[in-house]
Amino acid sequence: MDHLRKHVRPTGCCAIDGAMIFSRFPSLLAVASLLAALAPACGGQSNSAPVVEPSPPTNADTAEPQVAPPMAGRAFLLNQAEGYTQARGSTIRIEFTDEGISFHAGCNNHAGSYHIDGETLVVSVPGLVASLMACAPSLDAQDTWLREFLLERPTFQLNGNTLTLKSNDATLTFLDRTVADPDRPLVGQAWMIDTLIAGEAASSVSASKPSIRFEPDGRVVVDTGCNMGNGKYEVASAQVTFGPMAVTRRACLSDDLVKTENHVLQIVREGAATFRIEASRLTIERSDGTAIKAVAQ
Question: What is the reported pLDDT for 261?
Fold first, then answer.
């Protein structure tokens, strides 16, 4: 054993020259016996601290923070066009979220994804979808033109409430929707009801002209298209609470009139409903999904 102890380092924990052991003791059993004999000498703790390797950076450490595009959360209406003549009486609207874009040129609704590349607006062709309504030829052509314009990767410039998109052939200047077409106040004007909504089903009102008006004195006046009603209301944030409604009892002369009246009275029945206004459009909705849409007059 003396010739082996020469290879044992007398520091805090024993170190053995493995190459020497295996050259002298090729038998695995002999090696095991030798290690067992030397183990008590290594019972103390080492004075040296363990070496901790630094953890490699993770994706979360190296990823740059995501910045929303500057126009995200805003809608814009076309205010001026150079190189293109807008269809008479039409409205061209573009709306952005963080990653989605939707646009409407007077006929069908289009939606897809986009990203900003420097000063370029890149609308992705895969996933770009559109509704399939039949339109007047001028509006159908405008739909097609706007879609192609946006797919040409126009440059963009956002300056306050003004968004400018420019291609090789045309320059479109948009205004923020809240500036170009501000939200109307709920109180003090007539709202003509033109759409009835039940869950995911919506139908247009055609047989009558129902309306609702919120007076400054806290009264709400309702014309169902057949009977008249009035009651009290209160507004808090985006919620309107109706009081009991007094309604006339004239007989309605058609099933359509009865259907419309029943729907409107469901909306203005006693209790709370949510409402939202965008430009000249009002939506009032109950918690069960029943709703009406109206336009300011």
Answer: 97
Domains and CATH numbers, the chain: 2-41 (no CATH), 75-180 (2.40.128.270), 190-296 (2.40.128.270)
Contact 263, 292 (CB under 8 A): yes
Please identify which residue in the block is written with the tokens 């309306």: 211
Distance CA(266)–CA(286), nearest Å, equals: 9
Q: In whole angstroms, give the CA distance from residue 259 to residue 224.
A: 10
Long-range contact set of residues 198-203: C-beta below 8 Å, sequence gap at least 24: 198/263, 198/289, 198/290, 199/289, 199/290, 200/289
Nearest to 69 by CA among 93, 95, 98: 98
Q: Which two tokens stand for residue 96?
A: 């952005």
Record the tokens describing residue 179, joined without a space.
Answer: 């500036």
Q: Which residues pair with 91 in a beta bridge?
A: none
Whole-angstrom distance, CA of residue 112 vs CA of residue 98: 12
Cβ proximity of 164 and 156 under 8 Å: yes
Per-residue confidence band for 33, with pLDDT thresholds at 50, 70 and 90: very low
> Apex CA 107: angle with CA 140 and CA 292, to 5°?
165
Which amino acid would we find at residue 68?
Answer: A
The set of residues, in sequence order, having a beta carbon less than 8 Å from that of 288 and lying 6+ positions away, is none
Residue 4 has pLDDT above 60, yes or no: no
User: How far is residue 102's CA from residue 111's CA, in Å, rounded to a whole number?
Assistant: 4
